[in-house]
Write a structure and sequence with these properties.
293 residues, 6-phosphogluconate dehydrogenase C-terminal fold, 2 domains, 11 helices, 50% helix
Length: 293
């Protein structure tokens, strides 16, 4: 059983930050939660929902005396936040994050920290297209991956503490190198978002010539669901994980060109084989999610 957090500071009380606080509360793993954010209505809602005990717009004030600080903001905002709260950090405080990219975050944040403060970079793979604390859920992380990317400076007790908290939130924790994380999720997470955003933009531009959106069916709705995600968050992901995303997009373009050529050539066997393989893999993905312990 992981020792409870005396004071948790959540910077960015939205879907992920709010759900982490809720999950810890439900399991009796936190005594006090202090919330930080830009939107007062969202913070007031967090207080009404019992997600936080108190809130402020001042990150340094909120971090003072906290033993665990979660950064749940767009990744490019994180270094400035850490710079602002650096003088307020308690000795032996632990900072973790929920950013979707890791290598750039580690490079930017770790040099800013006093030697007595630990940084445990993390990425919960449990996002939804909805944002704000009202979308948060105590069971959001149940049976979902949380990837931790410790560095040479990350002490084992801090890693065990953060990993243990995530596990008790119901998550499956895995360790990766930051660079490997960015390559993997550039393909399986960031690329699908780019495709969804590009498809929406394609239809939007086409709509100027021919009415289309009024006839859209379930396929378009389901495929583009993730295009509702936070624009600020995905802007930062693209800029921070540029190399991996561009590689993933180039690989996708090669396959798309192949598919286009099969259609152009009216290659019945080639089309059927490609679709059979895709269907098989899709079933495997679904089965793997259902079979998680």
């Amino acid at each position: 059983m992981t020792e409870p957090v005396r004071r948790l500071c959540v910077i960015g009380v939205g879907l992920i930050g709010g759900s982490f606080a809720r999950a810890l509360r439900e399991r009796g793993l936190v005594q006090e939660v202090v919330g930080v954010g830009r939107s007062r209505p969202n913070l007031e809602q967090a207080k009404r929902l019992g997600v936080v005990d108190r809130f402020t717009h001042d990150a340094a004030a909120a971090a003072r005396g906290a033993d665990l600080i979660l950064l749940a903001t767009p990744v490019r905002a994180m270094p400035g936040i850490v710079e602002a709260l650096r003088g307020a950090l308690a000795p032996k405080a632990i900072i973790t994050d929920a950013g979707s990219t890791k290598a750039g975050v580690v490079r930017a944040i770790e040099p800013l920290l006093p030697s007595s403060v630990q940084f445990v970079p993390g990425h919960p793979i449990a996002g939804k297209e909805k944002t704000g604390v009202s979308a948060s859920k105590a069971d959001l992380f149940q049976d979902h991956w949380v990837i931790l990317t410790p560095t040479a400076r990350t002490a084992k007790p801090a890693l065990q503490k953060v990993g243990g908290l995530w596990k008790q939130c119901g998550a499956r924790v895995e360790l990766m190198e930051a660079e490997e994380h960015d390559r993997v999720f550039g393909a399986v997470s960031h690329l699908p978002h780019m495709v969804a955003y590009a498809l929406v933009d394609t239809i939007l531009q086409w709509e100027k010539e021919t009415p289309l959106l009024g006839y859209s069916a379930g396929g378009l709705k389901d495929f583009t669901r993730i295009a509702q995600s936070s624009p600020e968050m995905w802007r930062d992901i693209c800029l921070e994980n540029q190399e991996a995303i561009l590689e993933a997009m180039d690989r996708y373009l090669q396959t798309f060109r192949k598919l286009r050529n099969l259609i152009k050539l009216k290659d019945e066997a080639g089309l059927k084989n490609l679709f059979i393989k895709a269907r098989k893999v899709r079933k495997q993905i679904t089965a793997a999610r259902r079979s998680r312990p």
